[in-house]
């Protein structure tokens, strides 16, 4: 255990364990603050586990979780309040101790000279130079001073962010644009279903981020800590301030793995997998290809989720493999869906139901996964049928494919950009923010009632680009998004039900019925998914080439 003294009444440490708590008590510590969010690491004890043992030892314990690089002003306020109220001395910890040292430094900004704060943290092995300006500003973010400013700033370099940057550059080559994203890699996420089905290799779904940022677009490799739309400013990690004239918000959504008790600890082992993560999709295929008998269960959480058909795709491709291997009758397949229908657009249900019957899949509606014991091979679901009390049921498994709960990123959910549910609040046609007229959003993070898919982003990017250019030219919005989304449902190897629909579940097929009837399984649709869509993604959508994605002109409403 590595406890470091910051002051006579405050200490910092990297991650501690239950076994460390007695030693903490023996050193005279009276209270502990946890600054590490649960589920950040696979070997990390939860706050509740530590707090239970700490309480038995007479230690007070508080939970103020802070994501790496995202110490918000509100976090500092809460930390200072707890630090003042708790019995002294206090120990704070996170993964390395840096977040805790940063919180202390900012909390002391009005109580101690800057030099003393830097000296105390440096002596403990923590460098606070990255937040010096913030400490000097009384511990709060100095949004009035910009480190950089751009005509357009795009938050997120996923499918939406790079596509809209490329579309903007195609329209106005001289536009000064910055894309903000901390990731080194960019993933073609629609391919992960195929990886889990043994069709694609995982490495074929990834490119380096630097190779995809459009020429002439500035890449700020950082995380956004907070949004200040009233001041046209973004706060990045390290307290850097970026100003903008127009903002595009598309950081994607957050996969809430910790929303299922016990899931983080067992992912990637004990038969627990998910195609929603690059590193886990190959494990899905390992489990499927090695399974000869037993129980396989597949889960779907409450909406909204990215690609609502993905949980079913995993089932059908797995069941098709087991059918081809002649073991399907020895495997009990269950689909546990928190919703009440097989698919949200009724026109596609008959085709999907025929495969449910073919593979003998047990349908369990209103079943929401809440806890899992990987080593024990047990899962628990809350069953919330209409007009009935919630019942918790236990299901044993040999393999389980989990679709995690999903929500807006934390920095969005707590910002002025969000609606009551945490999503960016936009006009569903123009994709312009309802309150802040110089802000647009697209992709998974905004609240328009469309399917959250890459195909939707492909249609949204030109609309946002058109409307931003119109705004720059002093005009009203000129293009509208009709809610288009596509979900190629891989019902067997070689056949796909190509679901294409817009707002309200209106069918929006891209091809004539005689070529591809989206309500029926199609080999041509499989060819589209396997051979055509990946190149369209990499070579067209991310390059500003808007094939089959020309913006629809805005009509009077």
From TrEMBL:
Alphabetized Gene3D superfamilies for the sequence: FAD/NAD(P)-binding domain (3.50.50.60), Protein tyrosine phosphatase superfamily (3.90.190.10)
CDD domains in alphabetical order: PTP-bact (cd14503)
Pfam family, one: BLH_phosphatase
InterPro entries: BLH_phosphatase-like (IPR005939), FAD/NAD-bd_sf (IPR036188), Prot-tyrosine_phosphatase-like (IPR029021), Sulphide_quinone_reductase (IPR015904)
Residue ranges occupied by any Beta-lactamase hydrolase-like protein phosphatase-like domain in the UniProt entry: 2-110
PANTHER family, A to Z: SULFIDE:QUINONE OXIDOREDUCTASE, SULFIDE:QUINONE OXIDOREDUCTASE, MITOCHONDRIAL
Record's protein name: Bifunctional protein tyrosine phosphatase family protein/NAD(P)/FAD-dependent oxidoreductase
Organism: Octadecabacter dasysiphoniae
């Amino acid at each position: 255990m590595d406890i470091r003294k910051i002051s006579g009444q405050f200490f910092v440490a990297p991650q501690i364990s239950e076994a460390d708590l007695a030693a903490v008590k023996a050193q005279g510590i009276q209270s502990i603050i946890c600054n590490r969010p649960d589920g950040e690491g696979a070997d990390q004890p939860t706050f509740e586990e530590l707090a239970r043992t700490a309480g038995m030892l007479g230690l007070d314990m508080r939970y103020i979780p802070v994501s790496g690089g995202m110490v918000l002003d509100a976090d500092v306020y809460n930390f200072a309040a707890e630090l003042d109220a708790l019995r002294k001395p206090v120990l704070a910890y996170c993964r390395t101790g840096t977040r805790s040292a940063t919180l202390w430094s900012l909390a002391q900004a009005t109580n101690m000279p800057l030099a003393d704060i830097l000296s105390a943290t440096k002596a403990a092995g923590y460098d606070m130079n990255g937040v010096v300006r913030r400490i000097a500003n009384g511990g709060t973010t100095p949004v009035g001073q910009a480190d950089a400013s751009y005509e357009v700033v795009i938050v997120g370099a996923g499918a939406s962010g790079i596509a809209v940057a490329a579309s903007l550059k195609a329209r106005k080559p001289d536009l000064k644009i910055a894309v903000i994203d901390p990731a080194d890699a960019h993933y073609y996420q629609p391919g992960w279903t195929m990886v889990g089905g043994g069709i694609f290799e995982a490495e074929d779904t990834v490119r380096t981020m630097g190779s995809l940022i459009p020429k002439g677009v500035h890449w700020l490799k950082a995380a956004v800590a907070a949004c200040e739309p009233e001041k046209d400013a973004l706060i990045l990690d390290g307290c850097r301030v970026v100003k903008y004239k127009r903002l595009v918000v598309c950081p994607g959504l957050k996969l809430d793995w910790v929303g299922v008790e016990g899931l983080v600890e067992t992912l990637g082992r004990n038969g627990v997998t998910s195609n929603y993560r690059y590193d886990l999709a190959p494990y899905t295929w390992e489990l499927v290809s090695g399974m000869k008998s037993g129980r396989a269960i597949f889960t779907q959480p409450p909406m909204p989720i990215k690609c609502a058909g993905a949980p079913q795709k995993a089932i059908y491709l797995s069941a098709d493999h087991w059918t081809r291997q002649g073991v399907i009758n020895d495997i009990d397949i269950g689909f546990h869906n928190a919703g009440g229908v097989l698919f949200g657009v009724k026109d596609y249900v008959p085709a999907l139901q025929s495969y449910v019957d073919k593979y003998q899949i047990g349908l369990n509606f209103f079943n929401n996964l809440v806890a899992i014991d990987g080593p024990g091979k047990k899962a628990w679901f809350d069953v919330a049928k209409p007009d009935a009390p919630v019942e918790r049921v236990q299901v044993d498994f040999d393999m389980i494919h989990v679709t995690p709960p999903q929500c807006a990123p934390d920095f969005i959910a707590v910002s002025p950009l969000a609606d009551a549910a945490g999503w960016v609040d936009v006009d569903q046609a123009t994709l312009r923010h309802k309150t802040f007229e110089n802000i647009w959003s697209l992709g998974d993070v905004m609240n328009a009632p469309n399917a959250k898919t890459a195909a939707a982003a492909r249609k949204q990017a030109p609309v946002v680009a058109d409307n931003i250019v119109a705004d720059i030219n002093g005009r009203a919005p000129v293009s509208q998004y009709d809610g288009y989304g596509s979900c190629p449902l891989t019902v067997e190897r070689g056949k796909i039900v190509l679901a294409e629909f817009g707002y309200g579940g209106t069918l929006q097929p891209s091809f004539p019925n005689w070529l591809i009837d989206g309500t029926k399984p199609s080999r041509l649709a499989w060819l589209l998914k396997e051979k055509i869509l990946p190149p369209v993604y990499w070579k067209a959508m991310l390059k500003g080439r808007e094939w089959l994605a020309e913006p629809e002109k805005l009509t009077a409403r």
